[in-house]
Amino acid sequence: MLLAALLDQGADDLEAFSNNAGVDGAGLGMLLGAGRLRRMVASYVGENKEFARQYLSGELEVELTPQGTLAERMRAGGSGIPAFFTATGVGTQVADGGLPWRYDAEGNVVTASPAKQTQVFETAEGPKEFVLEEAIVADFALVRAHRGDRHGNLVFRRAARNFNPLAAMCGRTTIVEVEELVEPGEIDPDHVHLPGVFVHRVVPLTPEQAADKRIEKRTVRPASTTTVPNDEQEA
Fold first, then answer.
1. How far is CA 139 from the centre of its chain?
2. Per residue in 128-164, pLDDT tens?
3. For residue 99, which of 111, 117, 87, 84 has the smallest C-alpha distance?
């Protein structure tokens, strides 16, 4: 709902930080399809064909970042840590530079990633090289939570907890759409995944909006009917 509202609001020339650009025609894909995104910082192009098309045709600048590094850059931004060292990407173009950020219409690289600072630290395994990654602080963070109260205390469900709390932390203004809005005190403090100190606006969804969840790539398999012998089970 928040991304649809942003689409209706008309903002463009946006830089977005997300694991990927979602699916064609839904979520962040709506902004992408409308040509509202100037730059994406993401971990992979994913299943969005329009995302891949715009990137490879030079219409969209893309900074590809390892998934864990992207998550930690968000967490660092929300924690007031301007940068950190990580072993991820050392010895690759992530650290050495040269990753294509933008192509031209002919497929030539016109903007590439710069080299990053590296430093050797002592570890339990001996000296090891690490690369410096800068934190992410966004003007706005748009996230979704399973439950929340009016104070912004949030509970995320299953895999939604992977990125949403970190994305919420790194926003100067964080707006959260919640599937279930409850009164303050109804959420056990031990069950709060993100405290309200990081949240500035809470928007309750209708039951219909809460039930509208797109699956990026559905992968299913038939239930196994194979019986494992008792001796194998005991082994």
1. 15
2. 999 999 999 999 999 999 999 999 999 999 989 999 9
3. 111
